[in-house]
Amino acid sequence: MRSSLAGKFVGSSVTRKEDRRLLTGQGRYIADVVVDDMLHAAFLRSPHPHAEIVNVNTAAARTSPGVVALYTGTEMQKLTNPFVNLAMLPGLYSPIFWPLATERVRMIGDPVALVVAASRAEAEDALALIDVEYRVLAPVATIGNAMSSTSEKLWPKNNSNVMFDHTDTYGDVDAVFNSAAHVFTERFTSHRQSNQPMETRGCVAEVTPDELVFHSATQSAHSLRWILAMGTSKADARATAQALRANQARLKSFAKGAKDFLTTNKNDVGKNDNAGMIHQVKRDRSTLKHLGKLFVNTLAVDARKLPRVVADDIGGAFGVKGHATREDVAICAAALNLGRSVKWIEDRVEHLTVGGTARDETINLSMAVDHDGHILGMRADLVMDQGAYPAIPFGAPLFTRIMKVMMPGTYRAQAFELRTRIVSTNKAHYVAYRGPWANETWARERMIDIVARRLGLSSAEMRLRNMYGADELPVKMVTGPTLDKEMSAKATLEKAIEVADFTGFRARQIAARQQGRLLGLGIATFHEAAPGPPDFADALLPGGGMLTREPIRTVLNADGTVSVFTQQVPHGQSHETTLAQVAADELGVPLDQVRVVYGDTKQTPFAILGTGGSRGGPMAGGASMIASQDLRTQIIREAADLLEAHVDDVQITDGRIHVAGVPSISVSFADVAAAAKVAGRDHLTSSVSYDGGRGGWVQATHVCEVEIDPGTGIVSLPRYVVVEDCGDLINPAIVDGQIRGGVAQGIGAVLYEKVMYDDEANFQSSTFMDYLIPTAMEIPHVEIHHLETPTDKPANFRGVGEGGMIGAPAAITNAVEDALAHLGVTVTEQYLPPTRILELMGTIERS
Amino acid sequence: MTYVNITFSVNGSDVSSSVLVRQSLADFLREDQRLTGTHLGCEHGVCGACTVLVDGRAVRSCLMLAVQADGTSITTIEGLTNADGSLSPLQQAFMDNHGFQCAFCAPGFLLTAKELIDKGSPLDRDHMRAELSGNLCRCTGYESILNSMEAAIAAAPSGGQP
After folding, report:
1. Which residue of A218, A251, A556, B68 pairs with A684 in a disulfide if CB–CB is 3.0 to 4.6 A?
2. Cβ–Cβ of B46/A740 closer than 8 Å?
3. What does the buried/exposed string (b/e) look like for A585-611 if buried means 16 or more CB atoms within 10 Å of the residue's CB?
4. Chain B residue closest to A65 (CA)?
């Protein structure tokens, strides 16, 4: 593959820069990080879903061989500030909690104590010697339990396990439902799922003479840095006041950073109101006290204690490593307290238990249609189980807002209402998992099939009849955002219907049934805001745009290479290759002349969101393009002086800069760098903060054929087709890999994977023999077709990281119902293991 | 704590060491030998990320104790690379075909693949799926891994070293 010849890299499946080290065992994942004089940590975790901590006896553990320190919850509390959610919604109560459990444990695996020892094995030995006395409380195990007014309250200050109850209404929903020819209603339930990257979480808090370096497998280095700073900068009022007086320079620097951010995001900041925080403070007056301390302590903290976060190779994440966790803060606090470096690597049992879970929700969905099957409106009631603790810095509340905007899809519904409730239960916390809002697509696409069947329409016809076509664009979704003229969901649907041979399938299905074989075909269409149109962020949360700008810095180095500094933290998406492809094309240099720098908060520009939301391609790709164009202009200007030519006559060909038509007289990038230095400019550099330009949607239609074994209930997937449009492909092999990986997780979610608890909230799936990750035997060939709708957008990249997982659960469950339709089966659950299939078929009794 | 002296070879070099009896082979390779290319994904023998070759056979190094390696010859991912540091044909096939994404599972897949190719038995796509089903990958959906494997087999001289 080309990697040395400059030209057009975008659009080519160049081999990955990452692979040289990763294929030879030279990667540096978090568990590989070793620093001098390092200690090892292990957490004692709760065996109860819900209990009061009566007493913790640590005497024996503290004298166990190798033990250097032990922290109980109350001891850790003295070293830390609590987690306070800053992303408030009006009406949301977000409990304040500490790194280790203090008075109460709220889930199996809740961290109760931290042991730091000379080796991991010795730390684990000591855990066994800690004696905790619990007083068991009634567990809240299900959404149903949580909604009951008599259930034990996880967070007494809220006096309810319902943490958020809010209704959004668009259009005249009552009028539409009252006048509709038909209203169909179903209750959809989705099970708890888990990201389970092959690498668990982990960190090494390295104490150096100058600073605390926090090595972490994080998707979001900068937000982790500031959450660690807020969590660990505990000091009493007098010391804080002294530090603030003594360190005016630091205050000024912080004030400048804050001012820059507020200036850049002036419009968005103005759209915010304080309704969310006012509600929170009414429920819990300590919020203000903690927030005040958090900010003042962080401002006053000695710069040597302000963590610098460094992320290197990461073994997957799919959202779970975008959160700052209690373990992160506890390890950081322990290292600062001891003045010694501390390493913690989560084991798989811990990761399955408390690493993070998602998608445990019910959606009661009503669809109003006319006699011809035109969708007039939708009304939904969503209940999401966020588990015991809210994820920080964002979690279930944000995901419900995306569901709210996206649920009507690209259909012509003119009225929509969503009631959202978020409940707390004694289960692991709800994290981002690849398309965290995906159940809006699942419920809607499932419902469309149910309605189509009841009206005697084909699932394809029902969609074609209701979806916005190119001739109707641009148009606003009922929830606000604009479907721009490049929105091509219908084109993906039409192409999918063509390639998946719907007409031929029906004949095959009938013939197969006569032989006792059960075939089914399912389709699902969705669009995703990756990055979304300019009016998307405000539809989500007024002022949401301030979260979403993407910074990048390009630098011409003395040796003529170019560095691209990004705040993105790749963990499998291949940014080192794709961002370099974009930059190399703009600069006219070979790919190996560009190096992408990421993961180190000391070197990379600040942003709140790290890698996530399928934003790497569209946002960082777009930013890389603009920052490289600007750097090229500077390079040309400098070279024009050297070549004594006019800038308009200077060209770059394969990394050499010359006068047009005279390639023999040229200067190199290193010459330009040297000349710039002589002229007093240390480095030619460009910094951009990209707003996504005109943005846009990524869209796809998935079609899946299933065959169900009527004897065993096993579902196989003889054919799976994805037709998608993500604009220009930067690296087709990487795009296809993202799509296939997402589909594989969707297949796992429906057919194999379930985070299981018993009726008492006891955790039941703590190994890979219980939580079944699909293998090469279960994942079929995924056939991919790309559409590229023409556009004049300067950077036409849209994200593909999440789409596979957004479309797959809907397509598969639709296909399963299609295969069982002659039995009168309606599929309303997302989890369809063989036993459930046999229950649906009536072969076995429902357990 | 009980220690035992063992002698074995790792990637062609002889090693004599005193090991803790409770230490797994994976921890010994990673911590004592600093061969961190062997990854620990689950530590209960399901995911296959820690696979190494012990006397040419693929073994989960998280389930084997270091003391059990006494007298054996072990190959890890670090031992797959050619002596001059260039990629072996097997590694090259995975690079050319975009075999992995995060690549945390890569060492296990590559060593499982090496054992299969070294055996020289013909492998069609379905056999490959079955043979690789003891290794979990969460990123790729396996297609790129199967494509890479197919390319590696095509490139290998019959019965030869990949």
Report:
1. A556
2. no
3. bbbbbbbebbbbebbbbeebbbbbbbb
4. B1
